[in-house]
Amino acid sequence: MAKPELEFFDPEYLPWVQVEGQQPGQCEKILSLDPETSDCTRLKRSLPGTVTTQTYVHDWWEEVYVLKGELHDLLNDKIYGEGSYCCRPPGMKHGPFEIPRGVVCLEIHYGKKPIEK
User: Do 68 and 88 contact (CB within 8 A), yes or no?
Assistant: First the structure.
């Protein structure tokens, strides 16, 4: 299986859903998903005043592009605003983050292992 074939559509009609296992105020809209690997493309929104408490490390690739707002990377004490981009290989530490005014990011996750059935 793979991600589905999708023609242009308006993601405005997709619901924002709380991201499982993360602090309240962190929501996602899944744009495309490979059900076998969980590779996905999503919009992720963090509400103003959100502060994450953990340093994240994934076993997959993650690309992030800031569409609106900004986030303060507390690990590096840097603020990343609209137009900022990163590409994180598996094992790269990132976060925690402070979101003073809110942020919406486009995220692409890939290189995940197939889900065991």
Answer: no
Provide Rg for the chain, Cα atoms: 14
**Average pLDDT score over residue span 81-92:** 97
Q: Rounded to an integer, what distance in angstroms lies between the CA atom of residue 83 and that of residue 81? A: 6
Give CA torsion, residues 29, 31, 35, 36, to 10 deg: -120
Cβ within 8 Å of residue 68, ≥6 positions away: 82, 102, 103, 104
**CA distance linking residue 28 with residue 107, whole number of Å:** 10
Beta bridge partners of 98: 51, 72
- Residues 37-69 pLDDT 10s: 999 999 999 999 999 888 989 999 999 999 999
Can you give the residue ranges of every domain in the chain? 26-110
This prediction's pTM: 0.92
The architecture of the domain spanning 26-110 is: Sandwich (2.60)
Q: In angstroms, rounded to a whole number, what is the distance separating the alpha carbons of residues 28 and 31?
A: 9
Tokens of 38: 């969980």
Predicted pLDDT of residue 115: 62
